[in-house]
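Protocol check, entry for the methods section draft. Step 1: assemble the input record (protein sequence plus ligand SMILES). Step 2: submit for complex structure prediction. Step 3: store the structure tokens unaltered in the notebook. Ligand used here: zinc ion. Step 1 record:
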Amino acid sequence: MMRPIIVIHQARWVIPMNGWIISQGAVAVAGDRILAVGPAGEIRRRASDGELGQGEVRYYDHGQGAIMPALINTHTHLEFSGLRQAIPPQTNLPDWLQAAISRFHRLTPEEIDQGVRQGIAEMRRFGVVLAGEVSNTGRSLPLLQNSPLEFHYFYECLGFNLLSQGPLEDDFPFLNRMAGADVPLSAAAHSPYAVSAPLFQRISAWNRRWARPGSVHLAESREERDFLSQGDGSFRELLIRRGRWYEGYIPPGCSAAVYLDRLGFWNESVLAVHGVWLDPQEQEILARRGVWLALCPRSNLYTGVGLPDLPALQRAGIKLTLGTDSLASVPDLNLFQEIKVLQGHFPEIPLPDIFLMTIGNGAAALNRSHDFGSLTPGKKAALLFLPLSSGAPLWPALLEAGVQGRISWLTQTGKEFADGN
Ligand SMILES: [Zn+2]
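Step 3, stored output:
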């Protein structure tokens, strides 16, 4: 019988993300799980005393740098990866959407798949272990299933003029194949301007039935706000152009979060996305309902909607996570760049808080805290190593190494630069 292998990774710093930073720390791993985390001397002693189990012990000292848990990208659309740099920055979201839709329809299926593969590889390269993927075609699902990237799949439903009350599967047969399947998949709503009130409720019912987290783009633009209060503006024009408008639509006459609260859409396992235009009443609702909110700051700047008010969202007590959104509105899928943008615009927010959003909160929002989000015995050994020069302040140095892509994954054979395969 093969003896199990215990791998010990040591570095100048170990950042567990749920406790004190350990100077000269180590992480012991067996198989794909973390066995122990602590000062390197103690971990070595426990291994040689057999306290960590019997087996061959492999020991790697990675030296000057930090071991940290892998990142969680809670919001992306891999299927738009083929649109990298295809759409110039815009001054408003409806224009950006119109451009993205028409460019997307010109991509061939091969180009879409190729983009998905490249997007997956890029996320791995920048230290992402788990992603919240939003798709309305299902095309990226098999590609994700055959990749090292872990995922939660948000199958996105659209239908502004879909007023039926029947089972969700009647209109979205893809979900039929997935109900009860052992795939981490949910039904997701696109947005309040692309989903009817009955459709929101059907999506909610499907997720409740299968105990899955929900998601929705929320308060992304000023135009969404105007549309919900008046029923007109660029979103009405966009819906008419796309054949989704219907006469007789009555706008709810309130903000997006209030509207979805009335529809019973909010609960603690829903992930709202963007939240750039949330007013204080909406912030209070999201906090009270325990809704997660994914911020995608670089995408927001690119599509011209502005930036979410991070300090206000934090003060309101909203549970925050980070996402990149897609390559149609960001130049790369490097989450460290999102952290950098937030830190640059909101220097009063402690950098460790933003890292926590990106790691612990991300794992919890995608319902995977048992596997990811911190260096904790029992969780999956998704460990990153980032080299840091000695004497530099830890968190800024960590951020800079990540931004520059100086990231490797720790493995049974030491460390390797991720290529996504
Ligand atoms: Zn999105």
